[in-house]
Description:
heterodimer, B: mainly beta, seven-stranded mixed β-sheet, four-stranded antiparallel β-sheet
Amino acid sequence: AQSVTQLGSHVSVSEGALVLLRCNYSSSVPPYLFWYVQYPNQGLQLLLKYTTGATLVKGINGFEAEFKKSETSFHLTKPSAHMSDAAEYFCAVGRNAGKSTFGDGTTLTVKP
Amino acid sequence: DAGVTQSPTHLIKTRGQHVTLRCSPISGHKSVSWYQQVLGQGPQFIFQYYEKEERGRGNFPDRFSARQFPNYSSELNVNALLLGDSALYLCASSLLQGLNTEAFFGQGTRLTVV
């Protein structure tokens, strides 16, 4: 069984500020972890993924995430927010990317 | 290359009716998955098909069914529609079915049941 908890359904930051979106997971097997972004009326776009190996994963658009097994966490960060980062972000867990368990999402608002 | 394409993009149905949603995967992808995304929630897994066989099913009633065709396209069927079936239905395609690290999502079909 696996599950994902995203802490904070809404996060608001100022342009240029640090973005931190939190994700905790539960998995009975070594997890594959994913972050997706969804813009209004669109599908999901993969930002980054962790499978094995290096625990700090870099993705597109300047995002990165760190897998911390001891904390069962996979938080998403970006050093400096841009207005175009405003969207909904989903964390997901699953050994099969086509059969993943998603969190309920975090809406990121970026203030000018 | 074309991405995952879904049709229609929007539709409105009446309670009790039947609906068919369609998905064309990325060329060369043999696995198709369906997800339901209710407003304000994350996507929930409905089905996965690989090589035309069902390889996984989420916690959805038997009113939901799907199939995959020889060209790897897929249909999702929902019978006896309920108001609660209103959602964005997402299709995702991937190369493999097992230990699989990348799925590509379509833009979804927005279903409204009235």
